[in-house]
Write a structure and sequence with these properties.
The chain is built from 7 helices and 10 strands. By secondary structure, the protein is α/β, with parallel strands linked by helices. The chain has a 6-stranded mixed β-sheet, with helices on both faces. A 4-stranded antiparallel β-sheet has the order 2-1-4-5, covered by helices on one side. It binds adenosine-5'-triphosphate. The site of adenosine-5'-triphosphate has 12 residues, from strand 2 and helix 1. Belongs to the ABC transporter superfamily.
């Protein structure tokens, strides 16, 4: 049981956004994607999710190819957050759970459970626009966890957050991994990836320039001209 990306390439017209990348993420592992803006992280995630069809190559999860539009066991935190600002947090999360075919009563219970786990049960009746960016991020993360996906894809989960919320989100993600989930996330920052991940991949201009355990990648790191922002 693993996520396989096999020789995946994505072209937009003549432009190659992702160029022949391969990786394997074992079940229960956390895998980090590092790369500068435009390196191809989001495009890779969209292929893993079945939102974009690879121009060449394939992606499979648990032995089944992920083809366009089919990714039922996958949770996704998109880089562009997609919450409705005027909607109440509880209504929004229940709505999103129901889109995943969760019955309403179960959705209500799960939403209360997750808001409690994130220590924000009092946000249930607030509108999204009333929350800080960090707290909106928590709600968006809850939205991606509600149906308890076995594979969780997080696109820049810590970007723009203050250190307290970064720590909170990290521990929530680690807890979810301990419960058995396989997690892939992207970041600009080596320190976040190093702290959380088993293995990492470094993308540069669509190419996978390094991939492996943190130790292996760090050993090769100094030998290559790797453009990774460390802000
Ligand atoms: P960021 O950190 O800025 O999100 P990224 O590593 O996620 O960067 P991608 O969003 O995957 O990078 O983009 C990789 C390249 O592909 C960029 O040059 C981007 O402009 C291009 N690209 C992405 N989507 C499309 C599209 N639909 N049409 C044309 N080009 C695209």
């Amino acid at each position: 049981m693993a996520l396989y990306v096999e020789n995946a390439t994505k072209k937009f017209g003549d432009f190659t956004a992702v160029d022949d990348i391969s990786l394997k993420v074992e079940r229960g592992q956390m895998h980090g994607f590092l790369g500068a803006n435009g390196a191809g992280k989001t495009t890779t995630f969209r292929m893993i999710l079945g939102l974009l069809e690879p121009t060449h190559g394939m992606v499979s999860w648990n032995g089944k190819p992920i083809t366009y539009g089919t990714s039922p066991e996958i949770g996704y935190l998109p880089e562009e957050r997609g919450l409705y600002p005027k909607m109440k947090v509880e209504d929004q999360l229940i709505y999103l759970a129901q889109l995943r075919r969760m019955p309403r009563q179960e959705a209500k219970r799960e939403v209360a459970n997750w808001l409690g786990r994130f220590e924000v049960p009092h946000y249930a009746s607030k509108k999204v626009e009333e929350l800080s960016k960090g707290n909106q991020q928590k709600i968006q993360l809850i939205a991606s966890l509600l149906h308890r996906p076995s594979l969780l894809i997080l696109d820049e989960p810590f970007s723009g957050l203050d250190p307290v919320n970064v720590e909170m989100l990290k521990s929530a993600i680690l807890d979810f991994q301990k419960e058995g989930a396989t997690i892939v996330f992207s970041s600009h920052r080596m320190d976040h990836v190093e702290e959380l991940c088993d293995d990492i991949s470094i993308l540069d201009k669509g190419k996978m320039i390094l991939s492996g355990s943190i130790r292996e990648v760090k050993r090769s790191f100094g030998k290559q001209n790797v453009r990774v922002k460390t802000d």
